[in-house]
Write a structure and sequence with these properties.
This protein is an alpha/beta fold. It has a domain of 40 residues. The protein has 11 helices and 12 strands. Strands 1, 2, 3, 4, 5, 8, 9, 10, 11 and 12 form a 10-stranded parallel sheet that branches. Strands 6-7 form a two-stranded antiparallel sheet. The radius of gyration is 19 Å and the shape is globular. The N and C termini lie close together (9 Å).
Length: 335
């Protein structure tokens, strides 16, 4: 059984007021919930048009009020930028406010430029991240938080607000390489990859091998990939709209890399190259369903994450694509 999720950078649409972008996205998120999407994942970015949710918890508190069944959370909280005690309390609040529908990703932050704006050297981000994660996990599973580390120290802090989910809400982690799958498997953490199917398959194989060695039994975590998706009535319509929107998204994505004189090769710059790398699926409902089925099999997935809103897609274009996806693609795959 494969579940569907949504990943969202909440990137800027040029010429559209931020207030309109936020409200349009919340309307779309309500539609995700009604369509049967299992989970909404929100990125965290800073000082870049790639992400208009630098404080994911703030936006997600609105998501909690606009949805009923769908789970949601950040993908990821950039832990080096957080004071763990305050984040523990935010997580517990969101889990309580949503009736146990909150889940969260953890990471050190993909962009060294964004972390540097906070005065954190990229070499120090890793150790801070690992210590923050341990403090976070301890606080979520304890009545009283005691922690002694190099960066964080807590003595007998009462955990007054606690999560609905015990021992803590489900966690997520982004995996870029096969080697990166072992740690989340050891922690029973769900994973999502942006990598092409061949690399993603090596990662899911590594995950399952680690799980079998350390836990035994069937894997209960979600193993997914995230792809830009656009569903149109015709292939020509889908290619035209998706190509335009992807180009706008890429300009948002590359903004900070160009500002600092670095061209990042991790993402394809055109629709054609993105399609070659399994990064985008654009076409008719039949084509999109067939390609998703192929990727699920090729990458060994039990979870498929779509980006329905990106670049300069209007609310009408994104919601139209979602409607076709929900009516003609999802039933074919989920049965």
């Amino acid at each position: 059984m494969v579940d569907f999720g949504v990943f969202d950078h909440l990137d800027r649409r040029a010429g559209v007021p931020d207030q309109t972008i936020y409200e349009d996205r919340l309307r779309l998120i309500s539609a995700y919930d009604e369509a049967g999407i299992a989970m909404y994942h929100l990125a965290e970015h800073h000082a870049t048009p790639l992400g208009l949710a630098p404080s994911p918890s703030v936006f997600l508190s609105a998501v909690a009020q606009r949805t009923t069944n769908m789970h949601f959370g950040p993908m990821v909280y950039c832990l080096p930028l957080y004071e763990p005690l305050r984040l523990i309390e935010e997580i517990c609040m969101l889990d309580q406010m949503s009736g146990g529908r909150f889940e969260f990703g953890v990471g050190r932050g993909i962009s060294p430029f964004e972390v540097s704006y906070f005065g954190i050297d990229k070499e120090n981000a890793g150790p801070i991240y690992l210590e923050a994660f341990e403090a976070l996990k301890r606080g979520l599973t304890s009545d009283v938080l005691n922690f002694e580390g190099e960066h964080f120290h807590y003595d007998d802090v009462p955990m007054v607000v606690t999560p609905v989910n015990k021992p803590h809400p489900p966690m997520w982690y982004g995996v870029a390489t096969p080697d990166g799958a072992a740690w989340p498997a050891s922690q029973k953490i769900n994973v999502i990859s942006n990598s092409p199917c061949e690399i993603a398959r090596s990662a899911t194989d590594q995950y399952r091998e680690t799980w079998d060695r350390e836990h035994g039994g069937p894997v209960t975590s979600k193993l997914g990939v995230a792809r830009h998706v656009y569903v149109g009535e015709t292939q020509a319509e889908a290619d035209g709209i998706a190509g335009r929107a992807y180009a706008a998204w890429y300009e948002n994505f590359i903004h900070l890399w160009r500002k600092f004189g670095v061209e990042d090769p991790a993402y394809a710059s055109t629709l054609e190259t993105a399609r070659e790398r399994d990064a985008i699926i654009a076409g008719t409902p039949d084509m999109v369903a067939s390609e998703i089925e192929r990727q699920i099999e090729a990458a060994g997935l039990n979870y498929f994450v779509c980006r329905f809103a990106y670049g300069d897609l209007s609310f009408e274009e994104a919601s139209g694509s979602l409607d076709l996806f929900a009516r003609e693609v999802m039933p074919r795959i989920t049965g």
